[in-house]
Design goal:
2 domains, elongated
């Protein structure tokens, strides 16, 4: 495979990668696949490519995980399934290198610690400030003041278990359509900017991948 540029979608590598990031992918050739590398490979169902980080390499194969995921991917890959590694984000003068190898491990560890801290903070926020937050969300003051600067839009993806609907604000996935509850799940504090009543209610959506 020659060097190529792909565009990232999905939430599983946030905040390391954001929706729309251009990823420069190079083939491994004789370069060894290392723990900490961010690699591109075809999902086992063959429907899409996946961009995740290598978390283990041993005689059984290669294990991967998204930086924003709590668990390793359920599959084991062979080197032949890896299309290449992501070496930088963006193009031209706007490109920046992406940490790989042990630097990548350190980055992934920092991202997971940040995600744990963020989840803890959200829990504390919800516990003590939920009534105020709910009032501000329903009032729509922030949407009226900041909505034009931070517009939201819905993107539909075809996943292995069905259709996934997500809400994106400022390049971040901030919410998903819950096909079981048949309602939108918007993360705090983004509900202050997203008008759920204006979002599509897609009852045909059957599920989404983690």
């Amino acid at each position: 495979m020659a060097d190529k540029l792909i565009h990232y979608v999905g939430p599983s590598m946030n905040p390391t990668l954001s929706v729309g990031d251009g990823l420069n992918v190079v083939p491994y050739g004789t370069h060894p696949i290392c723990v900490g590398d961010v690699v591109v490979f075809a999902h086992p169902d063959g429907k899409q490519n996946v961009v995740h980080r290598v978390v283990r390499v041993d005689r059984t194969g290669i294990r991967t995980r998204g930086d924003n995921n709590n668990e390793d991917d359920p599959w084991t890959l062979s080197p032949e399934q890896i299309q290449g590694r992501v070496v930088s984000i963006g193009t031209g003068s706007q490109s920046r290198p992406l940490a790989t190898g042990w630097h990548g491990q350190a980055q992934a560890s920092a991202v997971r610690q940040w995600n744990r801290t963020r989840k803890w903070a959200r829990l504390q926020f919800s516990r003590f400030f939920h009534p105020v937050y709910r009032s501000l969300s329903s009032g729509g003051l922030f949407r009226r003041c900041l909505g034009s600067r931070f517009p939201s839009h819905v993107v539909k993806y075809q996943r292995s278990r069905g259709v996934e609907l997500v809400v994106i604000v400022a390049g971040r996935v901030v919410g998903k359509w819950d096909p079981v509850a048949q309602q939108w799940r918007i993360r705090a504090p983004w509900r202050l900017l997203v008008d759920e009543s204006a979002l599509p209610q897609d009852r045909a959506a059957t599920g989404f991948d983690p």
